[in-house]
Amino acid sequence: MTPANLAHLQGLYAETDDPWNFRGSPYEAERFVSVAQALPRQRYDAALEIGCGNGELARCIAPRCASYTGIDAVPAALDAARIAVPSARFVEGFMPCRLPEPVGQPGYDLVLLSEILYFLDPSAIARIAEDLDRDHPAADIVTVAWRGETGHALSGEDAIATFIQASRRRSRTVRRTDSYRIDVFTPPRERSA
């Protein structure tokens, strides 16, 4: 994420704690349900959401997790997330950065990257994929990408393609609409020699 992207997000959250109308939009409600349905397992021990925003996706997913951690670069978003899901932990971080350690577990078994990858450049996306493969090899990873104009250097499709290329995990697209796509990445495959 660039400092300009961060300044833009901070400006959005200065006006409201729900800049994309996650709470009231039928489209967003349907998207959150689709993400929950895409999860490969019913229960998780430790979930991490990178780019958690105001916690509305966490509200849908956290009940299925023993512990839930969200990370975001915008303090106002984190304040809203703590209100939305008081049982979860939300920490500040500017991606790419060292990820917070899971609570009471050796690693995360679920990682959510919902509409965050296109905020990053290809090297940052590759770093996240490599870090997750190395540090959280048992995790299911679920990505969500906006398919329209992002206003960033990468489109959602380009960002997902970059993540697929960098990750050793098996991936499949589980839902594709005109507006978004959801991909699921399961534990890393062995690279051929």
Tally of DSSP β-strands: 7
Determine the mean pLDDT.
91
Rg from alpha-carbon coordinates: 15 Å
What is the CATH class name?
Alpha Beta
Helical content band: 25-40%
For CATH, the homologous superfamily is named as: Vaccinia Virus protein VP39
CATH architecture: 3-Layer(aba) Sandwich
| Number of separate helices | 6
Q: What name does the CATH topology carry? A: Rossmann fold
Instruction: Report the end-to-end length measured between terminal Cα atoms.
Output: 33 Å
Question: What strand line-up does the widest sheet have?
Answer: 3-2-1-4-5-7-6
When the domains are counted, the total is 1
- SSE topology string: HHEHEHEEHEHEE
- As residue ranges, the low-confidence spans are none
Q: What is the molecular shape?
A: globular
Strand content: 15-25%
Q: Please identify the structural class as seen in this structure.
A: alpha/beta
Major pleated sheet? 7 strands, mixed
Description:
With 193 residues, the protein is of the alpha/beta class. It has one domain: Rossmann fold, CATH 3.40.50. It is 35% helix and 25% strand. It has six helices and seven strands. A seven-stranded mixed β-sheet has the order 3-2-1-4-5-7-6, with helices on both faces. α5 crosses α6. The longest helix has 14 residues. The protein is globular, with a radius of gyration of 15 Å. The protein starts with a helix and ends in a 5-residue tail after the last strand. The mean pLDDT is 91.
Topology:
Blueprint: H1 3-15, H2 26-38, E1 44-50, H3 56-61, E2 65-72, H4 75-84, E3 89-92, E4 110-114, H5 122-135, E5 140-146, H6 156-166, E6 169-176, E7 180-188
Parallel strand pairs: 1-2, 1-4, 2-3, 4-5
Antiparallel strand pairs: 5-7, 6-7
